[in-house]
Amino acid sequence: MPPKAAKGGTGSANATTTTALSSVGPTTQQTNKNPLLQNKIEALSSAVTNYKAAEQFLTKNILSLTDEPFTLTHMISILLQITQICNITPLPVVAAIRVTAFILKKHIVDEMALEIASEVACQITNTLTPHISNHVVGAIAPQMAKLLTTSDQMTVTLTRTEEI
């Protein structure tokens, strides 16, 4: 279902907008239309309140392997595992988790591409710089020799002119 357009006039206190996630079910008094900030979510009462507790929770619930580092790739796998936990998880929640996983995956691919491009550029620079320098010196050397010869000839000519 596509998002609904805003109702009411511009700047109206009654104007409401509905997103694809919030348009799935009816609005109730408990529906939270304003997302909480990260620090407020972290402050909510929960068994998981820090990194170590989070790590233990994921291992206990068989969502992660023991002693495996929490890389972005591993976290994407965990998010996708979470979407498979229960059939009663609301579809918007599953969709939001999957969306987050795919965005993280794209972020990893972009970072890897940037890293590879940087490494290739560095290798090409390191390989070609000495060769380019040698070619430039080789190309300039005959011109410099001619310039030096001309300079010597001009010095001799000037000296002879002064003698006359």
Topology:
Blueprint: H1 38-43, H2 51-60, H3 72-82, H4 91-163
Helix pairs in contact: 3-4
How would you describe what is shown here?
The protein is mainly α and 164 residues long. Helix content is 61%, strand content 0%. It has four helices and no strands. It has helices spanning 38-43, 51-60, 72-82, 91-163. Helix 3 (72-82) runs antiparallel to helix 4 (91-163). The chain is rod-shaped, with a radius of gyration of 34 Å.
Write a brief structural summary.
By secondary structure, this protein is mainly alpha-helical. The protein has helices at residues 38-43, 51-60, 72-82, 91-163.
Query: What sequence of helices (H) and strands (E) makes up the elements?
Result: HHHH
**Main pleated-sheet profile:** none
Structural class: mainly alpha
General form: rod-shaped
**Number of discrete helical segments:** 4
